[in-house]
């Protein structure tokens, strides 16, 4: 049973949709974040966006891959990215840590240095949490509360045939960085790959700009891999996402390192995860306008495919015009990415 099947097994049919609605739940389990509003308060301008992520030593990080400060920064950044994927603004955070004996006061202070650095960058107030001991490994759990205009949260379920698929930055860099760090190559690796893994940059401004245009039909952040995020949109929307290999953004640092290390860059791009750029769909008529608006703010936007009827499915097109591979070929992208139970 994989991660998402496990969540469904644990939570399905526990509470009815009507019961949750009476308690202000607008969007519950199944998207990047939950959306709620205070019940019995009509005409609210904003709804709350809530997300939580947990990082566990030896699963998400170790001494070879990240410093204590990096861990704190990334623990909050992952949650900020979930709020960004809803088109929201992050506001407040609760931080819980389970601390083993080998994580002394100075080391934990460094972790909080990174956490507050991220909080200051994105305007997040750290307002509380919990602290416990742990017998062996550090656990950091962060909950972020954000806000989004009432009724305007971007979800995974709105993609329509005729939309185009986009991504707001290069993908695969974090996975490449992790590969090199695990091999002890940090000192010789391209710096953008190391930075992508240790200090990701959530796409809050991109999410807000897309939300405000009113033409973005679905959105996800690339946390578990581009293929996984595309499948989540395809399944939630009941459509087929068609991605074009030649349109995928490949950074020079990624391609250089992949060639030098004998690795498949496309594997990192599709299945690596932790890039925290946004992948989504937008009405075709506004794709170029949105691209220009984001690029005016220094944010790249790459059109990488289109939405078709059918599915749910995710297809990758290879070859075609300008390719050494000849005529176009389609294949289904495997439904995988980082999975804790897979």
Automatic annotation (TrEMBL):
Q: So where does Mg(2+) 5 get bound? A: 224
Show the segment(s) annotated as Disordered. Answer: 319-342
What sort of enzyme, by top EC class, is this? Answer: transferase
Protein residues bound to substrate: 60, 274, 338
Q: Which SUPFAM superfamilies match?
A: PurM C-terminal domain-like, PurM N-terminal domain-like
Q: Name one Pfam family in it.
A: AIRS_C
Query: Could you cite one Gene Ontology molecular function of this protein?
Result: thiamine-phosphate kinase activity
For whether the record's keyword set contains Secreted, the answer is no
**PurM-like C-terminal domain span:** 160-311
Composition bias, Basic residues: 332-342
User: Which Enzyme Commission number(s) are listed?
Assistant: 2.7.4.16
Amino-acid positions noted as binding Mg(2+) 4 in the UniProt annotation, renumbered to this chain: 32, 82
Please list the reactions this protein catalyses: thiamine phosphate + ATP = thiamine diphosphate + ADP
The PurM-like N-terminal domain covers which part of the protein? 30-148
Residues annotated for ATP binding in this entry: 112, 129-130, 156, 223
Sequence positions that bind Mg(2+) 1: 53, 130
> Which family is this sequence assigned to?
Belongs to the thiamine-monophosphate kinase family.
Record-given protein name: Thiamine-monophosphate kinase
**Source species of the chain:** Paenibacillus terricola
């Amino acid at each position: 049973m994989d991660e998402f099947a496990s969540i469904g097994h644990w939570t399905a049919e526990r509470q009815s949709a009507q019961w949750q609605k009476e308690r202000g739940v607008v969007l519950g389990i199944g998207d990047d974040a939950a959306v709620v509003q205070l019940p019995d308060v009509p005409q609210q301008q904003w709804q709350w966006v809530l997300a939580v992520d947990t990082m566990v030593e030896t699963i998400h990080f170790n001494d070879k891959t990240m410093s204590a400060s990096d861990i704190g920064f990334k623990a909050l950044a992952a949650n900020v990215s979930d709020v960004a994927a809803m088109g929201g603004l992050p506001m407040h955070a609760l931080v819980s840590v389970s601390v083993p004996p080998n994580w002394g006061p100075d080391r934990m202070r460094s972790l909080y240095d990174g956490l507050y650095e991220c909080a200051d960058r994105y305007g997040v107030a750290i307002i509380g949490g919990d602290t416990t001991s742990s017998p062996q490994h550090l656990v950091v759990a962060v909950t972020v509360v954000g806000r989004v205009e009432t009724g305007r949260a971007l979800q995974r379920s709105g993609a329509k045939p005729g939309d185009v698929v986009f991504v707001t930055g290069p993908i695969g860099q974090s996975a490449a960085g992790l590969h090199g760090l695990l091999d002890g190559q940090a000192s010789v690796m391209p710096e953008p790959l190391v930075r992508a893994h240790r200090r990701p940059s959530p796409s809050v401004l991109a999410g807000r700009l897309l939300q405000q245009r009113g033409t973005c039909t679905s959105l996800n952040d690339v946390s578990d891999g581009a293929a996984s995020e595309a499948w989540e949109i395809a399944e939630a929307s009941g459509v087929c996402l068609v991605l074009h290999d030649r349109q995928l953004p490949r950074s020079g640092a990624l391609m250089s390192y992949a060639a030098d290390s004998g690795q498949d860059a496309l594997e990192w791009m599709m299945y690596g995860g932790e890039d925290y750029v946004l992948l989504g769909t937008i009405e075709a008529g506004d794709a170029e306008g949105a691209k220009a608006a984001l690029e005016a703010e220094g944010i790249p936007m790459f059109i990488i495919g289109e939405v078709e009827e059918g599915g749910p499915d995710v297809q990758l097109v290879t070859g075609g015009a300008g390719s050494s591979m000849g005529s176009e070929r389609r294949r289904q992208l495997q439904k995988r990415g980082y999975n804790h139970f897979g």
